């Protein structure tokens, strides 16, 4: 403990991380640097400054990382059409490598010996933060209070605050949602309380970003997304930054009941966990991206991407964003996106994202060949006979040798 003189803490200003500030000061007798990231969680981050100052913190970092988050993390992930275990759009997972990177950058700037975070010893986030930190600064020390202290309940945390005059709004702390929530520009997640029973249906009051499909408008909403090299650069013809694209899609998607999901997922630490997620913008983005790829990508390139995607998703989920294998996959994925340009028209209606049209100067769709009408000799249907017989040859040989499939 004597070796730790300064620690950079990922700090939200909430109950848990406020306790961690004082616990680090008391337990390690060290200076604490706080880092608060605005990645679009929808809450003011500036109040964290006053809370940190009240606890004697001298170096306080509050960074607006929304554009970097979407440009350098969310968009690259969606170029791969990334979905974990068939459903999860990885909203929490993809934010962690950015936070880990910034923790290390601040540690380097301030000469800190260690970093610290508020992730518990049961979840994936501890793995994600720490794998990222070690990849970027191998000799960094990591302090994870939830793996060291005995403050294992909200009540014990509040008692700790009362005993040590830690500035916490106790009235609001007691009224806090019963769910453990995480939010950023890509999603908001809910875990705990009622959701710990996989049979229990989520309460309607839990959801914050979307109306229920039943309550969504009876009139469909149409939008057009313009893609350049696999990324959305405009909505309805209006050029937008990456963060603004996602903010806009979240609003229009949520208003149409889009993006709710209820999942039992396999955590990296070995347990199953039930969580609910709202990802309205990401749900729209995934559907639109696959639509423009269907028009512009070669068949085998498309199929190879689909084969690589589960591996890529697993790497992101498990915290290996900074690994060499993720970077290798990303290079291949990004190369494929050079031709993924064009416009997708979508119809949003009561929780559904429906492709209503797509067009591209890089389209591989040839109407003269695909038509069911007269094709003026563009495709010789007689060629199919030899193609079929050649592909059937190995099965015909096996059948002739008595290897019947009946």
From TrEMBL:
L-aspartate binds at residues 120, 124-125. Keywords: Amino-acid biosynthesis, Arginine biosynthesis, ATP-binding, Cytoplasm, Ligase, Nucleotide-binding. Its main location: cytoplasm. Its EC number is 6.3.4.5. InterPro entries: Arginosuc_syn_C, Arginosuc_syn_N, Arginosuc_synth, Arginosuc_synth_CS, Arginosuc_synth_type_1_subfam, AS_cat/multimer_dom_body, Rossmann-like_a/b/a_fold. It is found in: Cytoplasm. PROSITE patterns: ARGININOSUCCIN_SYN_1, ARGININOSUCCIN_SYN_2. Residues 6-167 form the Arginosuccinate synthase-like N-terminal domain. It comes from the Bacteria. One of its GO terms (cellular component) is cytoplasm. Belongs to the argininosuccinate synthase family. Type 1 subfamily. This is Argininosuccinate synthase. The gene is argG.
